[in-house]
Design goal:
The chain has 218 residues and is α+β, with helices and mostly antiparallel strands. It is 21% helix and 34% strand. It has 3 helices and 13 strands, in the order H-H-E-E-E-E-E-H-E-E-E-E-E-E-E-E. The protein is elongated and about 70 Å long. It starts with 6 loop residues before the first helix and ends with a strand. The chain has 2 domains: 4-52; 66-216, Glucose Permease (Domain IIA) (Distorted Sandwich), CATH 2.70.70. It has helices at residues 7-27, 33-52, 132-135; strands at residues 66-68, 73-83, 89-98, 105-107, 112-120, 138-145, 150-157, 164-166, 173-174, 179-183, 187-193, 206-207, 213-216.
Length: 218
């Protein structure tokens, strides 16, 4: 399945690749190696763009005890830090880095009600940079679970990501594993939990959005 955020870009890429193929066919001698290389390059570009916007179905193990990964990728940060925007205090930060080859659909880690939403314009440092969480373009969402726990999750644009899409606002109801946003072309998602929350992952682990368990409530 292709995500709706990709329809326009995929169509534009298809038109450009088709035009490029026609020009190669018309103006380069037939049977030349470099002609076949150009055909291959155009085909690879199209495939890469299509795969970036893929939206595979996920079977979320819905459980109020669990905090589910909001994104596909690799765990790059697992540590207690100062969260300066909403909690203004110590929180356990779990960050998932998405490469351009990962699925870029973002999913809610918990079920609950959105209590806070902010969009912040900013820079485009590489997503694994320590300061990208506070300097890059980003959105911040805080959800209160039905048991009163508060979870903050933050979409962060990377060096290649130039558009963050978030579909939820304050007061909305979200479901664990449900789609809440999309980031285009490489990025990161941070999750902030109360200090001492038992983590189920470690740095370097590869996780799947909507399926992998990042942590569980004590």
């Amino acid at each position: 399945m292709i995500h709706r955020e990709g329809y326009t870009i995929i169509l534009s890429t298809l038109i450009i690749c088709a035009a490029g193929t026609f020009l190669v066919y018309q103006f380069l001698p037939a049977g030349k190696l470099y002609g076949y290389l150009l055909y291959s390059l155009l085909f690879v570009v199209l495939i890469l763009v299509v795969q970036f916007f893929r939206n595979p179905g996920r079977q979320t193990p819905v459980d109020p005890r669990h905090i589910i990964s909001p994104a596909d990728g690799k765990v790059v940060i697992l540590e207690e830090v100062e969260e300066p925007e909403y909690f203004i205090g110590k929180r356990l930060q779990i960050s998932v880095f998405m490469s351009p080859l990962n699925v870029h659909v973002n999913r809610s880690p918990v079920t609950g009600t959105v209590r806070y939403y902010r969009y912040h314009p900013g820079d485009y440092l590489v997503a694994w940079h320590p300061k990208s969480s506070t300097l890059n373009e980003r959105t911040t969402v805080v959800v209160e679970t039905d048991k009163g726990e508060l979870v903050l999750f933050r979409q962060i644009a990377g060096a290649l990501a130039r558009r963050i899409v978030c579909y939820i606002k304050e007061g909305n109801r979200v479901t664990q594993g449900g789609e809440y946003g999309f980031i285009k072309f490489g990025s990161r998602v941070d999750v902030f939990l109360p200090p001492g929350t038992p983590a189920r992952v470690k740095p370097g682990d590869v996780v799947r959005g909507g399926e992998s368990i990042l942590a569980e409530w004590p």
